[in-house]
Amino acid sequence: MASNEEILTGLAEIVEEVAGIDTADVSTEKSFVDDLDIDSLSMVEIAVQAEDKFGVKIPDDQLAELKTVGDAVDYIAKNQ
Amino acid sequence: MATLRLPATTAGARLLGFGSAQPTNVVTNDDLAKTMDTSDQWIRDRVGIQSRRVINDGTLLVEMAAEAGERAVKDSGLEPAEIDAVIFASCTMPSPIPNGAAQTADRIGIPAPAAFDLNAACAGFSYGIGTAASMIRSGSARHVLVIGAEKLSDWLDWTDRSTAIIFADAAGAAVLGPAPDEASVGVGPVTWGSAGDLAPTIFIRPENNALFQEGQSVFRWATTKIAPVALRAVELAGLTPADIDVFVPHQANLRIVEAIAKKLRKEGARADMRVADDIVLSGNTSSASIPLALDHMRADGRVASGDTVLLVGFGAGLSYAGQVIVFP
Q1: Nearest-10 Cα torsion for B158, B148, B114, B71
Q2: ipTM field
């Protein structure tokens, strides 16, 4: 079981690989769409990689609810 | 009980010729931005398309298909009368009756061929090549014309920016014939399948006869499930990913194309493997996209005779098919 901090670090690495955003900019209060300028298809790529990395399922309808990095960290923590 | 005689089998099939046809009318992203909430940058970022070609002069789907088919027959060096079967892969015929294959064959001047339509949407061309190769190997046909032809513009809501920016019109065709010996077989085994549980992710809405696509779900499926299909096609042909010179996936979305190519490279495909990017100037033309891309890549020298080419089609159904071919 990864801690919230480990999840954030892992998620930031995925966001960097998929969207080219510096890991330092990926913090819990940031909105994927409004702050990090990540589009819906990149969100799918991030979800797929997060599923592999953390052993969770993130269906598309759930994905739409994950507005901020913090939402994603909490979801992964709860469902891993 | 009678003993039934079967035709002599052949070593397998090979490609003999290619051809394609597109409308002359070019629609740019800026053109679309005039009628819907979108922009050139938005479209390039999401799907990688710069412009597409759309019929605006009433050309019939079967007319465009016949043009592509005629070019493929000419390229093969055969006479139309030597073609004994026509497979018409399409999901955009204006009506289900009559089929497209027979009337397209007639327009090309192919007398009385076996002629049938095949609807596997964007996977249609690879399904058609797989079917044609099996027919040739089993001896039920000698020379088969496979045409992928789509007039998607008839089935779009031109105010829906999730589909109108992507789809376009085109036809592409290939002629296959028997390989004289095992060493000259040019069509590898097909790997094909479907995911009917995902049928509701791409369908035509009956209320407006317009294509609807669940973009995220389809993107997820295409970027996770199709690379393994392509790799399986390579394995079935007795090759490794490093043997592939050219990769021509269905031109669904440039980001899907790039995601699949990246996965193939992780599995050993070469960095210098040429990857089709025909969607940039042609849009997503469903069953036509693979032969259209091949014809364009031949014209600009990116695919040449003897190249080992990996094809993979995927789309509505959902359905998918792939195989390795040797370019004629």
Answers
A1: 120
A2: 0.87
Selected for mutation to probe chain B from A18, A38, A41 (highest B CB count within 10 Å) is A41
Active-site option among B99, B250, B253, B296: B250
| Average pLDDT score over chain B | 96
Q: Which percentage of chain B shows pLDDT scores above 90?
A: 97
CB atoms within 10 A of CB A2: 17
Digit-coded pLDDT (tens) for B8-49 = 999 999 999 999 999 999 999 999 999 998 999 999 999 999
**DSSP, res B181:** S
CB pairs under 8 A between A and B: 26
By the 8 A CB rule, do B54 and B169 touch? yes
φ, ψ of residue B183 in degrees (nearest 5): -70, -20
Is B284 noted as a catalytic residue in this protein? Answer: yes
| Closest partner CB to A60 (pick from B220, B223, B259) | B220
pLDDT digits (tens, 9 = 90+) for B172-208: 999 999 999 999 999 999 999 999 999 999 999 999 9
- Strand, coil or helix: B71: helix
Residues 36-75 of chain A whose Cβ lies under 8 A from any Cβ of chain B: 39-41, 43-45, 47-48, 60, 63
Of the candidates B5, B13, B8, B9, the residue with the CA atom closest to the CA atom of residue B324: B13
Give the start-to-end residue ranges of the domains of chain A: 4-79
User: Which residues from chain B sit within 8 angstroms of residue A44, using beta carbons?
Assistant: 216, 219-220, 223
Does the annotation mark B91 as catalytic? no
Using alpha carbons, list the distances in angstroms from residue A56 to A1, B112, B218, B273.
11, 57, 20, 34
- Superfamily for A4-79? ACP-like (1.10.1200.10)
Residues B166 and B24: their CA atoms lie apart, in Å, by 17
